[in-house]
Each structure stands twice: as structure tokens, then as C-alpha cells.
Amino acid sequence: MDNGITTLDYILNKFNLSFDDKTRLPIEIPDIGRNGLAELFRELGFKSGAEIGVLAGEYSEVLCRANPQAKLYSIDPWVPHRGYTDFMRKGTFEKAYVAAKARLAPYNCEIVKKFSLDAAADFTDESLDFVYIDGDHNFQNCTNDLAEWSKKIKYGGIISGHDYIKHKKPTNIHVYEVVRGYTEAYNIRPWFLLAAKTVIDGIITAEARTFMWVKMPAAGPGSFDK
Q1: Is residue 125 part of a domain?
Q2: Is residue 226 part of a domain?
Q3: Run of H or E residues at 128
Q4: pLDDT tens digits for 164-215?
């Protein structure tokens, strides 16, 4: 699928969704989790993508198993650094790196041991079919990841990420705020949330939800001057 309209139509049809100028955003897709997103990438014929923030490689493996014909770049510095919100001990990252290498060795996966923006500089703009962002969750780094990796996605590709959740107490996790601000600033319509935010029998649920949108012309940094 080589353009945003085709990809978007597929998603709307697959999940029996409708969209117009009056549709409230984000559009909820309650019966698909991020494992289902990996299957969607396969259905769309995606051949290349990146996960930003890999740790021990569990979700990279999900992406690889769901779509073995695709080339995945698993990107993480695997070192403690200022601004990272989850783990700070060096030994934790070293163990995770060893685990990721072992877990991903059987697949069509290239491990890239770099900081997110350093790795992004190595990719040509509009060269990837998808990105899944799950790295640093603070405001600055989350914003940088969305801005820079969006440039690397082809029109008709998917920009997605993890941990979309509104926290009741002050926190250094700002995915919710960044995604809402980014989609509003660049008039990204529509965009989607996967899995329900409350437990419902028979429906896939997740507290930390996955967001996604299809890259369309004139959506995101650098798009308006093309």
C-alpha cells in the first residue's frame, strides 16, 4: 500500500469505523492490542520498520514473528542516561541488551545500539513503513522521537507508540500530553487508540495504551513545504 488513503481505508474497513470532520478524536479501536498491531503491519504488506526503545526485546520479537518478511531495526542505547524514566542501573541495561540479542537473533532484525536521534540520522527520510516508539517518555524526548522518526516513515506508513496514559499525579511520563499536542499542532486526522482503557469481557484491554496514525501528506514537521 503506497499512499495514506489506501492504508487508512483498509484500517477503517477492517475495524468497521467511520470518519469525517465531526468525528471525535482519537478513534477508539477496543478489540486490538499492540500484538494485533504487529499483525496489521503484516496485512498491510509492510517490509521495513523500527522499534524505538527495545530493552529486552519482547515487543521486537512480536513484530518479527508476526511479519517475518519485514526488516526490523531494534533501536536502544542500552545505557542509563539523564531523562530516562524507567531504569537507571547500568547492570539492568546490560542484562537487557544480552537478552535482546539472544531473543532477536533468529529473526530478520538489526539491533542498533544508539540513542534514538543518533540512529534516526542514519535513515533516509520516507524509507520505513512503520515506527513503534517506546523510548524515553519525558516531554522533550518523546516530542523529539515523534518529530524525527515521523520523517523516516513513507506516506501510507504508520507512526505508533506505547504508554499513552493520562496520569493523575505529577510524573515524568508525558506521552499523553505530547501525542495530543502533536496531533493537534499538525492537524493529524484521524488518529487511533488501541485496546480499551477499562476491563470489558471479551475485549482486549490495556492500561498503557498504544496510539497510531497513518502518515498523510501535510502531516508532521517538514510536510507543509513539499
Answers
A1: yes
A2: no
A3: strand 128-133
A4: 988 777 788 899 999 999 999 999 999 999 986 666 666 666 668 999 999 9
Q: Where are the alpha helices (DSSP H) in 105-166?
A: 116-120, 139-151
Q: Locate 21 and state its grid cell.
A: 470532520
Residue 223 belongs to a domain: no
170 close to 87: Cβ distance less than 8 angstroms:
no
Give the 3-state secondary structure of residue 38. Answer: helix
- Helix pair angle (34-43, 58-66), 10° resolution: 30
Q: Which domain range does residue 42 map to? A: 4-15+26-214
CA pair distance 59, 74, nearest whole angstrom: 10
Query: 39 by DSSP, 3-state: which?
Result: helix
| 119 to 34, 50, 113, 167: CA distances (angstroms) | 23, 10, 8, 30
Report pLDDT for 87: 53
Domain count, the chain: 1
Rounded CA separation 52/116 (Å): 7
Q: What is the pLDDT of residues 106-156, one digit of tens each?
A: 999 999 999 999 999 999 999 999 999 999 889 999 999 999 999 999 999
Say if 35 falls within a structural domain: yes
CATH of the domain at 61: 3.40.50.150
Q: Answer whether 177's CB lies under 8 Å from 139's CB.
A: yes
